[in-house]
Amino acid sequence: MKTKVLIPFLSFTLSLFILTSCGQEEQVEINTDSLVEVEEVEKSLLFGFDLSKYEAKFDTIKNGMTWSDLFAAFDISQYTINKTVEHLRDSVFGVRYIVAGKPFTIFNSKEGEDSKATHLVYEPDAFSYISFEFEGDSVHIKKKERPIEITERTVTGVIEKNSNLSSEIHKNFDSYQMTADLASSIEGVYAWSVDFFKLQVGDKFAIVYDEKSVEGRPFSVDKIKYAWFQHAGGDLYAFHFQDSTGEVSGYYNELAEEMKRPFLMAPVQYTRISSRYNLTRFHPVQKRVKPHLGTDYAAPTGTPIYTTADGTITAATRAGGNGIYVRVRHNSTYETQYLHMSKIESGIKPGIRVKQGDVIGYVGSTGLATGPHVCYRFWKNGKQIDPRSEKFQESEPMKEAVKPEYMAFMTPLKEKLDKEIADLKEAYQSLEPEI
Prior knowledge:
The chain is built from 5 helices and 24 strands.
């Protein structure tokens, strides 16, 4: 069942009355409306303009254009333009520059003998637009928020040969932004339990999530509500739950066990492993056999690197072949290290406590590296090991007092999800995991 919600927003109105005649002083008045509900604009109107009274001319911002270029169609002074831009930068609008590729529309009045440009609408993003009304040397500016719809959607898929999670998700979308957002959200739910670098042909998924859209165009995932992932023959359910007190919140499986684990499966979001833990690896730079005691995750320079567990920073520096790196002690048993960064996140230094998933630096190629990646190293009791083969302890179980509420919440959702799973398995019966 699909649900649609209109989200309330803050509607800001900034009115600039700029008087430029000799001997007169400028007067600037700023008004901010209170919280209001989004109002649907009539379908026959464009940005609220009646097209029987206005002619609309559509265009996009070109490379190198400035506010002055955008306002050139209007009979206003450069002083008025400068003051308008100044207040756009300093006001609640926070629009410092116009951006190449963004759309804008100029409205010419059809009334009167001369069809002159009277209004401009600039669209800085998919969620809002800014309208300008010019009357002599007076400028009236309004920012309007488009109504955001939240719709429950279900996406299912099967990992096929020579494919991956993003490829299978993209079959459901026209937008790579939505593909990336949903893939990232799924990885966030299963970051502790699914090895996305070892997906197998025939692995299946069914995801129920809330999708944000504007005027029917999806642009992001609000949250994953509940999901199922069949990985390596195992069924992994996840249900987002918050109890009535607000004390218990997160993703739990059908047995009321928390999905979260002590360590994330990887220090970067979905990318690829370029080199695994290998005691007999041939070093690509030093041209000799040298054990590789870490796992390399290739990713573009600047990709955020996350600490895989709570801990304390013990090193954040640069040294030899390691390049720029950060080391974290998690407890008396485990330590991790993240090498070849392009830079360390601001505020990360020895003695600082970090929480699982905090950004500690960014992917680079400093030190002995042939390309941008992070080398993730893992110590157990002072000895480097392969973290992908380590069996970690389970998370703390849900409190017994909360379980009845959770089971009542989860059971009907699981029944709905199981129907989706049955349909998916029937449709892809021929695509079972390869042995």
